Amino acid sequence: MKTDYISDYIEKNLSEKRKRHIYAVKETALKLALRYGADLEKTELAALFHDMFRELSEQDMNRYVEQFHLDPRYLNNRNLAHGKVTAAIMEKEYGIKDKDILNAVRYHTTGRARMSQLEKIIYLADAIEPNRDYPGVEELRKAAFENLDEACMLSLTRTIDYVRSQHSYLDEDTIKARDYLKELKI
User: How far apart are CA 157 and CA 110, in angstroms?
Assistant: First the structure.
């Protein structure tokens, strides 16, 4: 699948900071895909799309949440809504039907139980791309290239701890993702 139309949208509609992030996620995701033998074309497409609509205003994001009949918990929460909204737009407006690509975009912020290899790659690439700078990111970067499941477990656990420490809304998909990996004895 050609990605020129996505790159055109990114170049014309997103801030320099968002462009840098998206392209860094793409490069990181492709490295992870090579490491784990994942489909490079699907990886590139999911990585490019993952934050395409992240900069929508809260009002526009809420309109999409309602238009696509998404869970009302995503109203007034652009951080958690943007992946769900982007996946819906990909399907409805771009004609993308591949569930693996759609889910990789849909859950790239929260994770979910039973994530596919592609979902894990996009989730981790978003967390470890070279522009990310937070305590423990180097350890997570190293883990991502050693064991995909263990790296996801580490990232999910840290996310849960951080969000709880901030007394912020914690999406149940993140808890379910961590618990699923725990059950697998990762």
Answer: 11
